[in-house]
Fold each of these.
Amino acid sequence: MGLEFTYKDVFRAVRFGASPKKVWLAFRGILYAFFFYVIFSYAGFLVSGWTFKNIWQTYRFIPCPFYNAQLTWYGWLLWGIGALIVTFFYFVTLTAISKVTYERLRGDEFYEAKEAWKFALKNWKGTFLSPIYLIVFIAILILVGLVFGLVGRIPHVGQILIGLMSLPIFAGAFFVVYLTIVLFVVIVIAPAIVATTESDTFDTLFEGFSVLYDQTWRFFLWEFILGLCTLLAMFVFALLMKYTLSLTKWAIGVWAGPREWWNVMWNNGKWYLYLPFAPTFLLKWFPSLVAPGKFLALGALKTYPGVTTQFGAFLLGMSFYTIAFLIVGYGVSVFAAGQTIIYTILVKLKDEKNLLEMKEETFEAEEIEITPPEAKVEEEKPKKKRGRPKGSTTKKKTTTTKKKTKTTAKKKTTKKKK
């Protein structure tokens, strides 16, 4: 499935992302990241003095320390570990989706999701470590700038030194700003780089600098187009899911009976899907776009019915989380597929190299001749017996007889002479 190598190909990311295989990879990565984030974030809140009940009533499954929370330093450390694991699965998931997209662009429609996930885990260093190295380098440069502040405190001499070093300091600050932009580029496009070229950490960083330097305006403009396409695709999919849930609620409620168990179960199930750090702001400004028909429900649990209804509401709430993960997973799939398309086109434009025509390294198998067993029997030589061979004894006998004949002939000639 070829590309035109123009901006028109970016719009095809919506169709490439609408693949059950890629959406499943995105859902799998989100589920793993969600699992580890819940564990470490809950641990961070618990060691900071929160009770499990308070965390659950305030945040449900997704504790966010930036919203109405105060953590200790070790609580922040545990939360940071969870956030780092989420970042790891972000790069692994996008690499796997980019690999499937790349193989499909090359014509392999049956590339397995399992192989793509193994590939992403095998090449995790090229995607995960490249932005971390950049962050460490930026932090070192900022630390050097802080040291110059201490130098300026030296009486009489410090101010003069800072004045003399002002231009190099400005150059270093500008370099930090440039590296920050490169960091954004690497975070966005590193999975596509590794999926298409299997590059290591250094090569991934080099490609990030190259894309930013050679194709600056194309990169940012196409990323803007891809972002709009991703949001639009997620909105359409979420709208379809909204009407799907509305139809489900209506169909089951027709013959649910007078006990109102279905309405209670539905409302209590929505209570579990609670994002305290987002809907208050988003629903205020974009209520019709983000949650048409009040898809997200805020507030406390409606009522406390029987045990079976409560457990059914819990399972219904988990299904709501699954639907939310599928919506986000479709957006991630479109985003990763678009990054693969963008990087493939940019490499074609800046390096005049078509990544879709690159041949994989193959190793030629050694040719092994298979001979039938009858030929082997004929080719086998007779086994040698111990001792002297027969041929050597016959040769010795012939040599001895020749010697005897020679001696007898000499004796006859001597007799004749006499």
Amino acid sequence: MRLSFLWSVVAMSLLLCASVSARERDSEGRYHLTDDEKNTMLSPAQRAHLLDIMGQARNLADARRASKHHRRWSPNNSYGPAKIKCPGKPQGDNFVGYVRNASDNKIHPLEADYMDRHRKAIRKQWKDWLNSVNLGGNDGIDGGLDQFLAQHQPKLGIGISGGGYRAMLVGMSVLQGLDGRNGTAKQRGVGGVMQLADYMAGLSGGSWAVAAMAMNNWQTPQNTTQFMDLGNNLVLPDKDTMSFYTDLFNDVDDKKDAGFPVSISDYWGRAESYHVLDPAVYPSRGQNTTISDYVNVTAFEDGTGPLPIVLSIGRDFNEIMINQNATYFEFTPFEFGTWQPDLQAFFPVGYLGSDMTKGEPTKNNECVAGFDNLGYTIATSSTLFNGAYTMLLEDNVTSILGDIAKSILQDVGKSNNDVAPVPNPFKEYTAKRNQYLKADFIDLVDGGEANQNIPFEPLMQPARGLDLVIGIDAGTDQAGWPNGSSIVETWKRSKNPEFNYMAFPNVPDTNTFVNLGLNTHPTFFGCNASDYVNADSALEKMPPVVVYVPNYPYSYQSNTSTFQLAYGSDEVQGILDNGLEVATMAGKIPDWGTCLACASVLRPLQRAKMQVPNKCQSCFSRFCWNGETETKSPEPFTPPTGPPPFVLSKGHKNVQPPHTGDNESSGFDLGDFMDSKDSASSVYAPMSMMVALMLASLVVFL
């Protein structure tokens, strides 16, 4: 009996944790796995064992379901959403029932109220930081900081890229280098910037970082990693493995019993919740924790925390390939929706899952609460799963168990369980070009599948009016390191006429990024307010300066595999320490804090027609991209551990780092995916159980 089909099932489950993958696809978007790749990841013996486990898991799932006698409906104690009476309708001319028409390019009143409260709460921190980097005083900002901040306080956003646990850890590590509570970061001039952020956006693995930081009250990144239990594999916990899976199935069954379609994203999201939420604060491990619960976090109540945003992509019905202009959907603690001109509409995220038509409840004032589960929300942004099942069905499977598995994948393909389905709140809502007009569900996929791996989209919106956007890139474009392709892809997208309302800075090609070493250190784009795509047509004539911050091995080779789902304590600490060096450039450039401050105040000063301090000119001459390109193919990018040439030259040398030849791409490895760290446990049997239980669960709800 051929077992390659069953290996492919495992491969599809593995793909769930990825962001943008380098694996090639065919014209229909299907992943192709060679026999060598299959044998590397699961041996024939392991595949045979998987068949045996599948049979056991199917029987276990059937027995569990047969013994279930009641449903848990309350959104307060269950993963399953609950039916409730709809709240009062929002008031305003731009609301159609519960749907907010965002064509006026304004943020929701609740978001506006929070931003007003938040910005007042952090004003003193702005003053303290700007003073600490010498932008106050006689040779600083004209008129003094009090007057400047009262009228022109900068607006700051931070975006964290995708890339699994690597992206989560790299993102948090850079935040550690910007954290005012970190003594080294403060001494080097950039500590405190994290506390000045108005928005924090993440996609794929970056959304895990945002969720972990936000929902745990913005603890220090160092403290946050202490409860995340990263040495315990995300899908293969060392202890109570069967209990872990049983709890997952019970939770997901509650959602299914409540009448909602479930997908592997539900299991994935529940597993993620066990790591991103502090069990001391969330003893149910996120079973009933929603993204809208952020309003109960202390940092929200006192206005000190940034507003978290999770970014996903809407996949068109029957679409396999995700095109560059795909619709981005964002989750905030207030809303779910999109700014893109074809819809430009939002719905209260706390009532997502409600059956709506033309913005009104379809059933007698009946709404739903609890669908916006935090784990499911971040799972919608980290589900790279489209297209593979079509290829897998080409295998000739003849056994009974094989036919069961084949029927699962056939149904997954037909019912779109290969994505994260969200009940469509915009059904029959009239917009310019509502592609979801008749759709019952919006199918969400990995936020990085359009190759824009940094979540710039929500941060560049004119409605939010940001002055500075810091984009953290943990991509693995070239030998496991970023090469600028993420920001380049966003630049390409912005040139489409559909997006002419939103400006984006001009950036060079990826070859130039590598040849000039722009992928080795923070670089400013858009210092010249006219050097933007859509500079004339954009609604915001002074769009944000973008600070591109790529992952680089200052002190540690942090280009780990996207598929590595367990990290030992030494690895975690190595990445955290390296990210601090990335954010502070190892303390080698004494005026780096001043330069970042100059970038943050540049737009407000330009908008107010105020003079930019003279000391900023030196900063801009070193950190702003000056338009130079070098498009020849670069040498292999395998940098040595240590600061790059730009940093060692104190910002005067833009070249590619030396080629070591010993730092190849940290691509997929079975051991990375299956191993737990700090543990000697056996791995392949639990892995088989995980996949088998997932498949068996799908059989149950077919």
Amino acid sequence: MKSDLHRYELDYSDRKENKIASGLIAVAWTIAICGVLGALYMLMRNAYSAFWTTLIVSLVVCAFLRGMAEIIRLLQAILAKLKV
């Protein structure tokens, strides 16, 4: 898959270097799922402000961690291209 810069090929294989990025994505999905479930619990308790706060915070943290994983993969692709 090409990066946004269209100059570097991002490596999505599950090699040793990508364990950090894969771990970040797994943590991000876990936070998102737990956040949605927690938000639904708050909705059942009629705590609407807590519902929105929990939902938005969990999704923002998830997006941040996914972005960090993509940055790590992009930096690895740049480093691999410089080594060649």
